[in-house]
Amino acid sequence: MKKPQTLSLQEQLLKSGLSNDAKLKQVKAEKRKQTKLERNTGVEIIDEIKLSAEQLRQQQVERDRELNRQHKLAEEQKALVAQIKQIVEMNRIAQDPNGVAYNFTDDNKVKTLYVAEKVRVALINGRAGIAKVDSHYQIVPAEVARKVHERDAAVIVVLNEATQDVAAADDPYAAFQIPDDLMW
């Protein structure tokens, strides 16, 4: 078996017809003149082609860095969403389809969840919250809602401030009950 003969780039260009002998001789002459001038003067002649190639390489490196940064941010965002979803799924409080209606707003639209009376009171008093994950509403304890809120505030739809059941002694309206939510 014979090894295939490898041709230099110049020979390949000549063979394919993209270059001719005159151009080849001219390029070789210019190259000789440059090296002779560099040797005699000691000054390196700046090759514009090399300079532009280096600039292109630098631009490519910067583009690659930016793309890597964007990919990393996207991966971190995916991981954060998965983490939030897992936290909510592991700590959700069951809804009761035969329970009491709890109304709340999301994007200026009134939404209703049916929950047990005990859960409704917890939502009103701030001991529970509502999280929106994958277009579904889940009820979670307040501590979990705060943890999720730290990661992404947009996920928590309802988290009321914890109310104190003890009224101030000097409050003239302490004897009157204030409704926390109205049945619509």
TrEMBL record:
InterPro entries: DUF2058
Protein name: DUF2058 domain-containing protein
Pfam families assigned: DUF2058
